[in-house]
Design goal:
Its EC number is 1.2.7.4. There is one protein chain. A hairpin with a 6-residue loop joins β11 and β12. This protein has three domains: 47 residues, Uridine Diphospho-n-acetylenolpyruvylglucosamine Reductase, domain 2, CATH 3.30.43.10; 120 residues, Uridine Diphospho-n-acetylenolpyruvylglucosamine Reductase, domain 3 (2-Layer Sandwich), CATH 3.30.465.10; 109 residues, 2-Layer Sandwich (Enolase-like, domain 1), CATH 3.30.390. The relative contact order is 0.12. α11 runs antiparallel to α12. The protein contains twelve helices and 13 strands. The radius of gyration is 19 Å and the shape is globular. It is an alpha+beta fold. A five-stranded antiparallel beta sheet has the order 4-5-10-6-7. A three-stranded parallel beta sheet has the order 1-3-2, with helices on one face. The longest helix has 24 residues. Helices cover 36% and strands 28% of the residues. It binds flavin-adenine dinucleotide (FAD). The site of flavin-adenine dinucleotide (FAD) has 28 residues, from β2, α7, α8 and β10.
Length: 293
């Protein structure tokens, strides 16, 4: 039986308390959210934190809501401790961004979805993780709390490498904010070997149309070696053009051309490249159809 190395357990009573505990214990401390990635890593001794700071039960980190203000516009705000199951059940989230429900339906199984969190998923930054690509495609912004207060980081700067994010050792991800703008459609497609498995490849797309033209677009790719889950060159190709089939097929080709998948038990590299292109094309078509209403 695999058991973790010995560690001290601290239960945070608020976000600032969590930040203070992390600051006090330095690089040896880790936040635990749903524990579905961290605890298995501790059992395998791939992670050996000396202190676990438990952020379960912090109401400041929960909730899904839309907020509007004249200065800042409209945002869907999703607390970091939102469980996968809560996001899947949120009518508000699905009404604004179909991609959130489509992705959550195929992430793991109900046991994992009941416990695993949105914040834990993106902070884990596992290259096979679905939500990281989704929030990249949604052009979300991460709100991160540290000793000096809150700072915001666009998702494209949030992921700094496999299993590495912009969240510092004494910081806590508070929420993800997604801009709510008119003319938007989104979609997520995943190929997996069996229901509930990690992706062989998955793609999330969001399109904002202005008439026939693509005003803005987000493309996120999982498990295919897309740098930081994103495909900026393919987005650049689409932005400002009419959303034609030709433009979408070319965007799929460009997205795959920038991926560097590795062969593993889920499939050979050339199959993953094929999926990167094909899923991008199909998800873009679906997102455009939805944006057209
Ligand atoms: C059997 C199984 C199948 C799965 N299948 C899939 C799948 O198909 N697709 C998919 O996308 N995912 C899958 N997952 C992963 C799942 O989505 C987990 O929920 C996710 O990896 C981690 O979320 P968590 O809340 O459990 O995080 P934890 O394990 O608690 O934490 C993960 C990391 O994030 C850090 N962290 C957590 N929250 C914060 C925060 N608010 N601020 C700062 N740091 C934080 C922790 O310190 C740790 O380093 C699967 C997991 C399992 C166990």
């Amino acid at each position: 039986m695999q058991v973790p190395a010995q560690f001290e357990y601290q239960r945070a009573t608020g976000v600032d308390h969590a930040v203070a505990l992390l600051s006090r214990h330095g690089a040896e401390a880790r936040v635990v959210a749903g524990g579905h990635s961290l605890i298995p890593m501790m059992k395998l001794r791939l992670a050996q934190p000396e202190v676990l700071v438990d952020i379960n039960g912090l109401h400041e980190l929960t909730g899904i809501r839309v907020e509007s203000s004249r200065e800042n516009g409209r945002w869907l705000r999703i607390g970091a401790m939102t469980r996968h199951a809560e996001l899947l059940e949120s009518e508000l989230a699905g009404e604004h961004f179909e991609v959130l429900h489509e992705a959550e339906r195929v992430i793991a199984d109900p046991l994992v979805r009941n416990r695993g969190t949105v914040g834990g998923s993106v902070c884990q930054a596992d290259p096979s993780e679905d939500l990281s690509a989704v929030f990249t495609a949604l052009r979300a912004i991460a709100v991160i709390r540290g000793g000096d207060g809150d700072r915001t980081v666009p998702m494209r700067e949030f992921f700094v490498g496999p299993y590495q994010t912009a969240v510092g050792p004494a910081e806590v991800l508070v929420e993800l904010r997604v801009p709510v703008r008119p003319g938007c459609g989104s979609a997520h497609l995943k190929v997996d070997r069996r229901a509930g498995d990690w992706a062989v490849a998955s793609v999330a797309c969001t399109v904002w149309l202005d008439g026939d033209d693509v005003a803005e677009v987000g493309i996120g790719l999982t498990a295919v070696g897309a740098p930081n889950f994103s495909a900026p060159e393919a987005e650049d190709h689409l932005r400002g053009r009419p959303a034609t089939s030709e433009a979408i097929v070319e965007a799929g080709r460009i997205a795959a051309a920038h991926c560097r998948p590795v062969a593993d038990q889920r499939g050979p590299a050339d199959y993953k490249l094929h999926l990167a292109s094909e899923l991008t094309v199909r998800a873009l078509h679906r997102a455009v159809d939805r944006a057209r209403g």
